[in-house]
């Protein structure tokens, strides 16, 4: 939300495969007066009346936000490439070995655009799962840079698990 409001993107897409998460995102966008569109959402998500011309959503912010259903397992490469992203952001998405392969495919397809890079915040609850993610990225020729960051004490969160922030780019063959 902060990147969408203050990063001044031309367009920002929020994605998930969960109707509950998408509904919560819709509420947060309304609370922050972000104008957004919500095409292609499953019908149970549409119940939240997610619409760009919803009367109390005022277009006071410049970026155009989209709420979009995206399932890393089901999405075709073409659907993923349609995002045409310059930057993708993700937090706490490496939590289950089963989703690593589909997630790395999504990342690889997004990184086909040469100007694209990703920032992923990983909470390391299980080091083996994180290692598997790193190996899978490596096999997919994704370059990984671990960014320095100072954990903030502003928010309440689990301070026991380590958080690593990765910058992902396509490895260039020299
Ligand atoms: C641990 S939560 C993290 C949520 C949020 N990014 C955060 O940091 O609070 C993981 C998120 O990944 C989503 N997710 C899991 N499997 C997915 C899949 N196959 N396709 C798309 N999203 C998925 C879940 O719906 C959930 O919102």
UniProtKB/TrEMBL annotation:
Entries under Gene3D superfamilies matching the protein: Vaccinia Virus protein VP39
GO CC annotations on file: protein-containing complex
Natural source organism: Sphaeroforma arctica JP610
PANTHER family associated with the record: HEPATOCELLULAR CARCINOMA-ASSOCIATED ANTIGEN, PROTEIN-LYSINE N-METHYLTRANSFERASE EEF2KMT
InterPro entries hit by this protein: Methyltransf_16 (IPR019410), SAM-dependent_MTases_sf (IPR029063)
Name of this chain's protein: Calmodulin-lysine N-methyltransferase
Domain of life assignment: Eukaryota
Listed Pfam families: Methyltransf_16
């Amino acid at each position: 939300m902060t990147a969408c409001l203050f990063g001044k993107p031309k367009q920002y897409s929020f994605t998930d495969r969960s109707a509950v998460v998408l509904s919560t995102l819709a509420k947060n966008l309304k609370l922050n007066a972000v104008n957004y569109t919500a095409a292609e959402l499953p019908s149970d998500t549409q119940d939240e009346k997610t619409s760009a011309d919803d009367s109390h959503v005022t277009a006071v912010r410049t970026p155009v936000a989209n709420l979009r259903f995206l399932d890393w397992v089901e999405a075709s490469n073409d659907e993923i490439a349609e995002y045409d992203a310059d930057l993708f952001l993700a937090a706490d998405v490496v939590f289950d070995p089963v989703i690593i392969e589909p997630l790395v495919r999504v990342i690889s397809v997004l990184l086909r655009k040469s100007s694209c890079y990703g920032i992923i915040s990983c909470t390391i609850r299980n080091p083996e799962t994180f290692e598997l993610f790193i190996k899978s990225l490596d096999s997919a020729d994704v370059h990984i840079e671990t960014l320095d960051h100072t954990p903030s004490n502003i928010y309440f969160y689990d301070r026991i698990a380590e958080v690593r922030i990765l910058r992902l780019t396509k490895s260039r063959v020299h």
